[in-house]
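Late entry, written up from scratch paper. The run itself happened at the end of the previous shift, but nothing got recorded in the book at the time, so transcribing now.
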Amino acid sequence: MKISQKDINDAVWKACDTFRGSIDPSVYKDYVLTMLFLKYLSDVHDDKMEGYLEKYKGDAERAKRAMQHERFVVPEQSHFKFLYDSRNEANIGELINIALTDLEEANREKLFSEDGAGIFQNIDFNTSKLGEPKDKNTRLKNLLLDFNKEALDLRPSHLEGSDIIGGAYEYLISNFASDAGKKAGEFYTPSEVSTLLAKLTQSKPGSRICDPTCGSGSLLIKAGQEVGSDNFSLFGQEANGSTWALAVMNMFLHGFDNATIRWGDTIRNPKLKEGDALMKFDTVVANPPFSLDKWGKVEDKDGEKNTVSYDPETDKYNRFWRGVPPKSKGDWAFISHMIETLNEHGKAGVVVPHGVLFRGSSEGKIRQKTIEENLLEAVIGLPANLFFGTGIPAAILVFNKQKNSNNVLFIDASKRYESAKNQNKLREQDINDIVNTYNQFAQGKLKPGVAEDKYSYVATFDEITENDFNLNIPRYVDTFEAEAEVDIAAVQQEIYKLEDELKTVQTEMDKYLKQLMN
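Output as recorded:
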């Protein structure tokens, strides 16, 4: 019987019991996700090897030669089975580390960054973070036992669908994000928000798609899947080394072997370049860190001498010609980068905190210039408590190099969601409503001044100018809820009734008090 997505999801989530309760999810997620990746490569290797042995009638040497041309080379001591057979060894943590290093070396082009960093360099299975030696070995042994179960046979020939492994990886990441609290925002955009962004910026076949703050890669993958064909290329950059490694693994598990994922600070050291210029894209999507502090200028003290290793004022890519955002709020720095990496017909979608819509000073000037360039196409207000790590409501800005008018669509979707215990959630209908309204506007079917009651409004450039380029959604979408009229006479009658009841209660109380005194 074929293994389903649910079978694998349940099995990998249960494997987390080895760590749950004793180690923070933000720590142990990397161990579980890395083991899933290793198990997947090992099982695919076995599946392919069996196929070649059958093809070459049991000739092991020919089969091994053929395996050298497969997606991944899996050295014998990097194979999951070798580690499983070694699960009782006192140095099992060290053996897993060696296995990962050998796997990296055997697949250097795929598993190393252009700077020579391997995707497993930030994970240590022999660390004291996993407990005292005895406890650590017990946890690692249990982890290997969990991944050896029949429900985690990840050979493609045993699976119901082609993207089950990618689905399991996404399932794990979303569950870790739910458990990890504030730290989750560093690596995960909720699936529904990713879907919405991907649909709003839907790429055509042949597109280059980029996420300059890609986290674990979930949003970038959604944007690719929305194309509707395999004819697209994915590019991403991530500043956190551990999260970059998750993104690289995520791409392989979804079958996007040719995705280019770079490790580094997108603002200070953009890695996605062609020659000395920034690479240009058809689509750019991102959920950057909200209002990042100290995003820009870096002063280095060398003895008594100060040097500046990066200054946005003199950015060599000229990304901040509209203005330099305040050093305590990097939102417009990421937006400026995204706009500058769009090609002549490109489109960008970005998640931002609401302050981006109305804050003044340098941010106000950048916002004004962007609107005067006629790049801003839509402002979409989202419900509160959608994102892991923050309860504040956010918005989506859509920029388009090929707008068909100088109008801007405003949508207030803040009241449309499914309420949940920990996180609110966009429903499929909520996403469809936003996308349908946006598509109607993009197709020129919604005219200036047209409003959908308490939901959307099409504003002209002149209206936005009159509002001093303030994009605060209530300025454009009337969300005022009139209070119900008060029936003064009925209220007065209710007061008389309550006063009579109070007199009755007071009389009763006096009677009881007299009885007690006697």
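The chain has a mean pLDDT of 91.
(Scratch paper discarded after transcription.)
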